[in-house]
Amino acid sequence: MNFVLIFLITIFSLSLFFYGRSKTKSISIEKNIKLNALPKFYGYYLVLWCSIPSLVFLLIWTLFEPVIIKSIIIETAANQGAIFNDKNEANLIYEKIKAIYAGTYFGDIDTILKESALSYAKFINLFTNSKIVLIFGIVIASVIYSLKKIKNNNKARDDVEVILKGLLFASSLIAILTTLGIIFSLLFESIKFFSVINIFDYLFGTNWSPQRAFVSDASAITAAEYDELKDAFGFIPLIAGTSFIAFIAMLVAVPIGLFSGIYMAEYASLKVRRISKPIIEILAGIPTVVYGFFAALTVGPFFRQIGENLGLTVSSESALAAGLIMGIMIIPYVSSLSDDVINSVPQSLRDGSYAVGATKSETIKKVVIPAALPGIIGSVLLAVSRAIGETMIVVMAAGLAANLTINPLESTTTITTQIVMILVGDQEFDSPKTQSAFALGLTLFIATLVLNYIAQRAVKKYREKYD
Amino acid sequence: MELMNNVKIKSKNLNVYYGEKQALFDVNLDLNEKEVTALIGPSGCGKSTFIRCINRMNDVIDICKVSGNIEIDGVEINDKNLDVVSLRERVGMVFQKPNPFPKSIYDNISYGPKIHGKGETKSELDEIVENSLKKAALWEEVKDRLDEPGTGLSGGQQQRLCIARAISVNPEVILMDEPCSALDPIATAKIEELIDELKKTYTIVIVTHSMAQAVRVSQKTGFFHLGKLIEVGKTEKIFKNPDNKMTQDYITGRFG
Of A10, A207, A216, B61, which is least surrounded by CB within 10 A? Predict the structure, then answer.
């Protein structure tokens, strides 16, 4: 139904474009007046007036219709004697009614359900009809309004400008609101979590085993239960594992990335640069899951093999394998950004250095790199926040056990891995185990936000220096 | 009648190409020791290209090819086997736009000596820095803030800092590529005064767009046009009584 309506509105408003354009043309010829805008703007004006109000109305209606119908139906069902103890049971009955209406319900149908299904059908009809009537009303009203406007030779160009500005504003508003929505949902769920688990037990606890956290009733946790619980949500092993793997990744990515960036910017001929830069950047385009199974199936076992030959115990899922692969994944970020940063160091500085007799590598080491340092630090920090947020590789290659260890050959785990583990499969949303995922998410969000902020400040500071 | 000094730098049939394009045509030019030689001419005439041959700065540009000879004290420098590092130690350069390193004033000056292994101890370095800054007439202005960044100085101070940086490795020749074009008149006057002082110790080649500047600072002037050296002679003669019609037209402002 909605698609038909949208289609009709679109067709109608497009035809209005041609009407508006020719109408204003003929008006200007008939009355011999100068139009306030090009004829096509009157066309746009009609299109926008005809489509936007009705489409917005349709959107809002579609969002609220099911909610309203549901509350009405549940209420009528209750009046007819249906019994439900809580929200879940009410939902169940509502779903049954809907299924009966759609003809896909095969259980027993008692009178209450039957009556409710009939009234559901009635309401659906009523709402659909009134929706159509209202939309036509809105279309007609807005078309009459806008036609009247263009007959009076309004400043259609400016008006179109205002409407378009409004549309663009609405788009950015949606983006911002979505972000805020995500942040708030993280925040609220985390607050629920922290109302059960003391924030200090979370931040400074050294043991992470959320699987242990069975709670019979989350709203009433006894002191004995809490003693059990507070030990299960220690954040330290996760942040340690995350930082450790990110550290290994940076050990790989920073030197290789930086050196290849220097090579690209300073030594490579134009031809080499043109070929090799895109190749390095392909690394950034490989899906992380591919890196993940590469780490888990090739690199991990390879390290274990070497370890066995050397007489070491190496877990097949190790921080080393995950960190190494993650480092390789991050190389293009570091190399590409530092290449850009080094390139933007003015040639005059290099000339100045050559002119006192410095060689190329001396110039790079003592003039170019120090001058580009803020930008390079910025690129490294961006890479770090990428490493911290990376999920797939560590899920597949680093292991799940939250060991508090600094042995790179043992398996360890990260914040992101744990979020995945907690939210995969069935969840109870009132258990602290599930809620802890949101607390982790919030912590991770804050950490990367801070890092990104610092990185961008560093990059910006660098830019100001030479622009 | 003042005496002409010895020839320090001698170019013979110097040709320079940027890729396909030839930038200098058979330039034969002698530059005298402890004297200021000014190179004038319209934009793109090859004056900067010429001085960049003297310290082989054109090596930095991939597509640039140099043929012909340049001798300093009779030694050919346009030779593949020549050590460019020690050449540039002997031939310093100051650029059009002041280009201090984003380091402290002290580090800007000590950079060159450190590279060439001069000034082993801190006190020796201190001395080099102080002397260079004094010779560049900047010491009094910056002696209390040697650890502040060189980029924080004014344009004229920055250019004197760059001159001090060039002096710091104790060169014989200083090349100046339009050193005052980015400076205001007062800063320009200071630099010109400084050039006058420096010529007692160094051989100076200065590229300039300002004819007045050439007259004020130089003893010898060369006029370039479209990659060719049109005329060269004593500055006085070039500006009062040039042999070539084109030189006459240029210095009287008829083109350029």
Answer: A216
The DSSP bridge partners found for residue B229 are B224
Supply the mean pLDDT for chain A: 86
User: Angle, nearest 10°, between helix axes A300-310 and A319-343?
Assistant: 120
Whole-number pLDDT of residue A467: 42
Which of A154, A177, A192 lies at the terminal end of a domain, its last residue? A154
CATH of the domain at B237: 3.40.50.300
Mutate to test the interface with A, among B48, B60, B114, B168 (most CBs of A within 10 A): B60
Please check whether residues A142 and A280 belong to one and the same domain. no
Contact A351 B88 (CB under 8 A): no
Q: What's the domain range around B32?
A: 7-102+172-251
Residue A177 within a domain: no
ipTM for the whole complex: 0.90
pLDDT at A214: 64
Answer yes or no: is B164 within a domain: no
Tell me if A227 is assigned to some domain: no
Residues of A whose CB is below 8 A from B57: 351, 354-355
Instruction: Give the model's confidence band at A216: pLDDT under 50 very low, under 70 low, under 90 confident, else very high.
Output: low
Say which of B86, B97, B101 has its CB closest to residue A357: B86
Question: Among A342, A348, A356, A369, which would you mutate to test the B interface (most chain B Cβ atoms within 10 Å of its Cβ)?
Answer: A356
Number of domains in chain A: 2
Question: For the domain that residue A381 is a member of, what is the CATH number?
Answer: 1.10.3720.10
Using only C-alpha atoms, chain A has a radius of gyration, in whole angstroms, of 32
CB A237 within 8 A of CB A404: yes
Q: Does residue A363 lie within any of the structural domains?
A: yes
The runs of H, that is alpha helices, within chain B are 47-54, 84-90, 105-115, 122-135, 139-142, 155-167, 185-198, 211-217, 235-240, 245-251
Q: Say yes or no: A139 and A240 in one domain.
A: no
Cα B216 to chain center, whole Å?
A: 16
Residue indicated by tokens 């450790």:
A244
| Mean pLDDT to the nearest integer, A211-227 | 66
With 60 as the cut, is the pLDDT of residue A185 above it? yes
Contact B102 A371 (CB under 8 A): yes
Task: Tokens for B151, please give them.
Answer: 């980029």
- Tell me which of A132, A154, A176 is where a domain ends: A154
pLDDT band at A166 (very low <50, low <70, confident <90, very high): very high
Q: What is the pLDDT of residues A256-315, one digit of tens each?
A: 999 999 999 999 888 898 898 888 888 888 998 999 888 888 888 888 888 888 888 887
Provide, for chain B, the percentages of residues in helix, strand and coil under a 3-state DSSP scheme, each rounded to the nearest 5.
40, 25, 35
Domain contains A95: yes
d(CA A93, CA B116): 89
Total count of domains within chain B: 1
Is residue A184 very low, low, confident or very high in pLDDT (cuts 50, 70, 90)? very high
Q: The whole model's pTM is what?
A: 0.74
* Cα A318 to Cα A277: distance, rounded to the nearest angstrom: 31
DSSP of A389-416, one letter per residue?
Answer: H--HHHHHHT-S-------TTS----HH
Q: Hey, are the CB atoms on B88 and A356 less than 8 Å from each other?
A: yes
Q: What are B173's two structure tokens?
A: 């020749």
pLDDT per position as a tens digit, A96-117? 888 888 888 887 778 778 888 8
**What is the residue-wise DSSP string for B98-162?**
----SSBHHHHHHHHHHHTT---SHHHHHHHHHHHHHHTT-HHHHTT-TTSBGGGS-HHHHHHHH
Determine the average pLDDT of the residues in B113-136: 91
Based on the fold, state whether residues A401 and A253 are members of the same structural domain.
yes
Could you report the per-residue pLDDT of A352-387, keeping only the tens digit for each?
999 999 999 999 999 999 888 888 888 898 899 889
Q: Which domain holds residue A99?
A: 2-154
Question: Who among A353, A357, A367 is closest to B116 (CB)?
Answer: A357
Are A356 and B60 an interchain contact pair (Cβ–Cβ within 8 Å)?
no
